[in-house]
Amino acid sequence: MYTEEIRIYGTVQGVGFRPTVYRIAKDLKLKGDVCNDGEGVLIRVFGSKECIEEFIKRIQSESPPLANINRLRRIPFQQKLVFNDFVISDSIDTAIKTQIVADAATCEDCKQEIFDPLNRYYRYPFTNCTHCGPRFSIINAIPYDRNNTSMAEFAMCPQCSQEYANIENRRFHAQPVACYTCGPEAWLERADGKPFTAAMFSMLDDVDAVCTLLQKGEIVAIKGLGGIHLACDATNNVAVEKLRSRKQRDDKPFALMVRDIQVIEQYCKPTTKEKELLQSAIAPIVLIKIPPISPSPNPPLSPSIAPGQNTLGFMLPYTPLHHLILRRMNRPIVLTSGNLSSKPQCVDNNQAREKLHKIADYFLFHNREIVNGVDDSVVRIVGEKIQIIRRARGYSPAPINLPSGFENAPQILAMGSELKNTFCLVRDGKAILSQHLGDLANAAVFKSYQETLNLYLNLFEHQPEAVAVDKHPEYLSTKLGKELAVTNQLELYNIQHHHAHIAACMAENQLSLDSEPVLGIALDGLGYGEDNTLWGGEFLLADYHNFTRLATLKPFALIGGEKASYQPWRNIYAQLISAFTWSEIEQEYGNLELIKYLAQKPLRLLNQLRDKSLNTPLTSSTGRLFDAVAAAIGICREKCSYEGQAAIEMEALIDEKLLNKRKETLTYPFKLNFLDSIYYIDPHPMWKALLKDLQQQTSAKIIAAKFHVGLAIAIAKTVDTLCKQHSINHVVLTGGVFQNRILLEQVTNRLQASGISVLTHSLVPCNDGGLSLGQAVIAAARWGDGEMGG
Description:
Number of helices: 24
Largest sheet: 10 strands, mixed
């Protein structure tokens, strides 16, 4: 007989892992125990070597659906083991190295129970088991035991205790287990404070009454899993417009929740991969293309759901609460974050009463505390690959395994960017990326960012040895990171923005620490460059340690600075006067409506600002180039109400069938110049051709298509030129502009046709939401180099 200690690392707490180990051990008649501790799951087992080998094999093959074993370590157990049976022991408090499970959508078994009138969980909105339900959103500390969650205040009734203790039960050691007798409860309130009961509508209960209220055109704030949402009937245009007005959200698309896939198919035709994502435990918002000839749904969606878009963002119910609300709803509902635009999502009942009473007509609250606020994740399928646009519920805080070479990286804290912020913790060869936190320029978001950061540091007992920040001196995340480094005497690493984008993509694609440099193409709005200008269209020869800038988009003046991001007319004017003189423009193109429009602007003042370099920094921003082209064809010319709106609406114009039919002629030319040891992609010939098309009244759809194809060809030609001069094995496509599916596919296809290996994002966003991962791995590499900051 033989005694062994088995240590299992990975996502193994809160997923029914110990019960699985227990069942297998009992089946094999082994003796010993299993427990949780700070590192994961610890097993001590006594039996024959043959049985223990079988035990290990079955643990790996029969692990629960939400479990993820990263590593398994076995050593002989030297101490005397005194067990007459196999048992589940109490958790051990040790240093935190284990992983926390992301919240998981309701499993099929729980869903059937809440709709079964004979089941004790019938219509219970907080039904869960070891395979589903709240995890990260309710946890205060590790190990993941009930007393360390917001379920601690709900003492289990005898029936729940019996299920919790029964090895044969699906709820064996499910920490959030509860029922009507002992668990959280939901109730409905009027926003104006007047009394209300579900019986007024002859409804089953308050949750059922929400469906009736939505059908009547009311706006209801619903407290869900990771935050509070605002909901209304998506087919009721008056309700949708009212929600837009009250929420102060002019144009940004609303997310939709529907009862099932069949409701989605009334409006879109999701692919097999999209259906799999919708029905997965992650249950994200999935962007699905609106077909050119749409089905004839009854009733149609409000045109205000996603103005100027060619996709709709759908999600399925991911909690029993949502399933119960939508049981009688045969149409989509809007389900959007419970906040005023740009503010943090409300997570607390009193906070919602204070912040949302002028938006919502009713509140559906519950009394289970949301410890960690988590927004809904947003994804899309490009080709057959997942592209994450917002990484939050269902993904965070699941760790990302770093490539070989990072196993001994120090504990690093990377602070992220200003927009779409996330932060990142690195330790033990893994990166833990926070959920999407938002735009830090908003004071409330920055406060939430600091609170979430402190929570993560405490939750994971993370003690940073170094801090990584973006080089932009005015980013609030950078300033906070520098303060933390000084206060705690930590090493500080200043990381260039686009280098971080590229390194993030390298890391998620498992390029090792000592891999050869890649050619990284980082296209975005802007990032602080090494020459103190604002970069945004960069070709960098990069590894994890350093980079060399090989090519860029030709810089132009960002007239008005930050204003140019939301007033595209500034960008079209700046682009035109960079390519021509104004007198040339008036002489050649003065008859165009565009030029007449620009002539009404305060051009003399703008020229003075440009000539004196006042609030007109130079930028190579690809995002602003997209804004300029969009403005030229009349899209969001005067203003954008959200970041990237002009580019998104321009992409939505394009008929993809047209792209496939006219590959050679449907394009605009760009010029590649070489000056001062760097290549410049010059859009001057593109502007000449575009303005000529405007004179010939070419449709906006064709102009948009020609721009996308022309830019893709220019990128591919630049890559070809650089590959001939440098030893390049991989090309990385990154930055927020590559959220543009048409550009991403056009560039990828052209490069792959030339035999080039192309790496793109799938685990983290290509936008600034993935930036902190890149900052962290660059800091880890430089730490290994012995660099003192940089």
